[in-house]
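> forwarded from #structure-qc
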């Protein structure tokens, strides 16, 4: 049995677990070592069973807790060539930790097969398609302003997809953010809206995927209820019934979300 578990997800910090049996991978680490360690302990996950940490990109809400955590637990770290260069040159990853760059082909990381794929953001950024030891496949894609063909290819054929549903367009445009920040978020190098996420989920459901995690919800421009409502409205118009035809779960900002089996 494989599981996707978000330890925390949002603009204030992101970290998730992809688990199969005793072995697991961490994806990003955007909060302090105490928060991440407490979450792992609550899930009865030993750091010694972690095969590595996958980093999507260099923004602080994805790497803030990495340095301190790795000083205590020197795990191998993986990312795109650009992200690895940044982590190394800025001393984010201690010298005691192995640091590896991932390209476009699948690589073995412990018991898992991992393939990085590019996402459209304002710094070099990737998502990950992960094959588990029991033959299941999931993909995670956050921090992307548009759904490129490369992203669609990486999400297709998965048993579970964790996809960004960052903002509600009306909340963003009528909220307190200055114009330049709103423009950045809406751009093809920004973030994915609830509407864009919902349309992609429907497409993936029609291709056979049944389990979804909505990730990286904005604290100021979204709510879990609104993100889910947008998805359910889109699915309902296509006669897709949530909880019957698929499972869609909005991930929690500051606490562990319920595990999603796939």
């Amino acid at each position: 049995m494989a599981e996707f578990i978000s330890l925390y997800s949002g603009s204030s910090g992101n970290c998730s677990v992809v688990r199969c049996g005793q072995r697991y991978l961490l994806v990003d680490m955007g909060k302090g070592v105490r928060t991440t360690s407490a979450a792992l302990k609550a899930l009865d996950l030993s750091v010694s069973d972690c095969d590595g940490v996958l980093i999507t990109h260099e923004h602080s809400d994805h790497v803030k807790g990495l340095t301190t955590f790795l000083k205590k637990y020197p795990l191998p770290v993986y990312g795109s060539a650009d992200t690895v260069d940044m982590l190394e040159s800025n001393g984010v990853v201690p010298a005691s930790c192995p640091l590896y760059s991932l390209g476009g082909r699948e690589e073995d990381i412990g018991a898992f097969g991992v393939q990085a794929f590019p996402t459209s953001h304002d710094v070099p950024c990737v998502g990950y398609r992960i094959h588990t030891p029991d033959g299941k496949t999931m993909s995670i894609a956050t921090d992307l302003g548009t759904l490129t063909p490369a992203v669609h290819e990486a999400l297709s054929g998965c048993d579970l997809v964790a996809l960004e549903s960052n903002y509600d367009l009306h909340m963003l445009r009528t909220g307190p953010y200055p114009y330049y920040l709103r423009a950045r978020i809406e751009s093809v190098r920004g973030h994915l809206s609830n509407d864009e996420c919902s349309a992609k989920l429907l497409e993936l459901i029609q291709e056979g995927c049944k389990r979804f995690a909505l990730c990286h919800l904005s604290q100021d421009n979204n709510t879990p209820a609104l993100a889910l409502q947008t998805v359910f409205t889109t699915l309902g118009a296509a006669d897709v019934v949530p909880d019957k035809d698929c499972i869609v779960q909005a991930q929690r900002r500051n606490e562990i979300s319920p595990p999603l089996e796939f």
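QC bot note: Residues 194-207 form the longest helix (14 residues). The mean pLDDT is 97.
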